Amino acid sequence: MLEEIDILSRTSPLRTTPPQPSDEVRAVMQVFDQTLFHAVPRLYRSVESVISNGDAGRREPAVPAFLRFGSWVGGDRDGNPFVTAEVTRQTAAIQADHALRALATGAQRIARTLTMSDDATPPSPELANSLARDAVAAPETFSVIRTSSPSEPHRQKLLFVAERLAATRHGRIELAYRRPDELLEDLRLIQDSLRAAGDNRAAFGELQHLIWLTETFGFHLAELEVRQHSAVHRAALDELLAQLDDAPADGEARLALLDRLAVEGWPSHVQATSDRTREVLDTLRVMSWLQERWGERSCGRYIVSFTQSPEHLVGVRALARLAVGDGPLRLDVVPLFETGADLNGAVGILERWLPLASTRAWLGSTDGHVEVMVGYSDSAKDVGPASATLTLYTAQGGLVDWADRHGLQLTIFHGRGGSLGRGGGPLHRAILAQPPGSVAGRFKVTEQGEVIFARYADETLAQAHLERLTSAVLLADTDDATCRNRDAASRFADVAATVEQASREAWWSLVRIPGFADVVAESSPLEELGELRLGSRPVRRSGATEGRDLADLRAIPWVFAWSQIRANIPGWFGLGTGLAAVGDPERLRAAYLEWPLFASLIDVAEMSLAKANPRLAEAFLALGGQPDVTERVLAELELTRRLVLETMGQSELLEAKPLLQGRVSLRAPSIDALSHLQLRALRLIRDADSPIDDAERAVWARVLLLTVNGAAAGLQNTG
């Protein structure tokens, strides 16, 4: 331990080079290798143990492999010019290599334990025939296996399975599996043979774990999801449609044209003329190739950021038709509704999208299953945290009604971040607070940034987190949970409407102050975040150094900056005004006690307030040079703190959470010291008339980055 501490103390906490997308991919692979490959079968086994009445591991399990993993790392190109079609292809290859290596290692390990002889545990006729075919298909390989494991047919077969997995990993076509279903057939052949011979423990023990792993991860590990901004597709389509005669620029005529092109195809003379459009088409071609190589589950979802019209969805299908023609491509175009206005208009957009011929054809291949993503980060930045929470709840209810009307199976994809201003907080409580019918046994959510390693860096913690998530999904649709949420939402609809409107107006009164985005940049280390080299994506969408626009600030750095200056407004600003507008403490208290969604909103604000420091926030904001911004923030902070405590019936923050309160208070002095040092560094660096020279300025710039790292580690939930 002392050696480890010594090494860590001599290791630079700052990166010298920015990570590439491939670095980010390999970092995520560690979570699968070290944690998830072990935690997932343990999770299934724990569920099986609860429902099997003591027969777990001795009979065919009643628990299916109910988890599926996806990844945006190497697929999300929204605002990241470094993620290309080639990066996506390489990412899928890396993922497949890790999945196949894990399966082969598991097969070899379990095979070493299957030492039962053929006289004690005779093979089934089907297994004997399969071994005979293996001996003909790969005589040299099988001869080595049979020599090392004589009279052990079950072991022989599983060792041969391991050889085939290794061949699949290394591209040896003659012995490779073509798809995971073939592997599952072999594993179940061994399992059925063991069961027929009376060895149920061997059949449904570790071998079942390997089957669960195969069903969960396949050969692709996690479905690689592509995401791109709708504006990029719009630009590509404008370029392509300009090559057609009299192509409409907008409106229903353009929508109809795109739908026809998606179904019938494009004229042969249309082709990409810019690198940007070629890259869009190449991405779709790569998706098609990956599905041929690793199966349809490997890469089929295409998420459209800032979906604001049905054209943004059908346009992707039209581009795909141009990219692959009549070639194979399972393409699930997923709308992402992010701003308050987009969430409110989501159902209207989907109503216009549903009757299109391209949509109906696709729905026929999915048995009516539709996925819709809702964004927490940009909605909170757009209308404030309280309004966003309530708007998301209403929007989800509308989506459920829409799906029910049309007989569709809806999965709502929750784009939650790790920070409290981006949908963070206890996930199991958030699931139980969802609108009735919005879960229905299916829940999809993003796990991002520091949250990944907080929840999945340790096998035991990962299993516990997945168990809580599973239980919440199962409980969300029970009669008790459904009635509680429905009744509470109805009883407190007036409270929600008042809080939503008043908090939104308060938020807009702050963020629409002229020069507000410049204040954020000047009073925080926002401009320096890129020097931390935390990720491959640029911190901001443009390089403006003044006259910045709020839309230019990405959600993650936006939240991160506010946590550094100890104000944390993305987690609470506007809520105090909203609560004050209700003007009925007893009714607010009742809503907190009886409505899970409202309780979650208040609890997240409480955590954000507990990690804020008004004195430091005032000092940081003074660097922005706009006293009215500082005054509004501090006044709302005091109002929100007072009314949150009143609503919760507490005298101090985190009073009902003593363990968490202890951790926060224990860290506060150290974090405050770092914040004071960061403030001094910012003042010196920002002051153009500062007496320090360039060399000293560079020293203080390093100090600034070190304090940012340290404060983030202590505060957590920073984004």
Describe the structure.
By secondary structure, this protein is mainly alpha-helical. 62% of the residues lie in helices and 5% in strands. It has 32 helices and 8 strands. It has helices at 2-9, 21-51, 85-111, 125-137, 139-148, 153-170, 180-196, 200-204, 206-217, 230-241, 251-264, 275-294, 311-324, 340-344, 346-353, 357-366, 377-383, 385-405, 427-432, 450-456, 459-475, 479-491, 493-511, 516-523, 555-564, 575-582, 585-594, 596-610, 614-622, 627-648, 658-686, 694-715, and strands spanning 70-71, 223-224, 226-229, 301-305, 332-337, 369-375, 409-415, 444-445. The strands form 2 sheets. A 6-stranded parallel sheet has the order 3-4-5-6-7-8. Strand 7, helix 19 and strand 8 (444-445) form a beta-alpha-beta unit. Helix 4 crosses helix 6 and helix 6 (153-170) runs antiparallel to helix 7 (180-196). The longest helix is centred in the N-terminal third of the chain and has 31 residues, at 21-51. The chain starts with a helix and ends with a helix. The mean pLDDT is 92.
Summarize the structure.
Helix content is 62%, strand content 5%. It has 719 residues and is mainly α. The model has no long low-confidence stretch (mean pLDDT 92).
Question: Which features characterize this protein?
Answer:
single chain; 719 residues; mainly alpha; 6-stranded parallel sheet; two-stranded parallel sheet; 32 helices; 8 strands; 62% helix
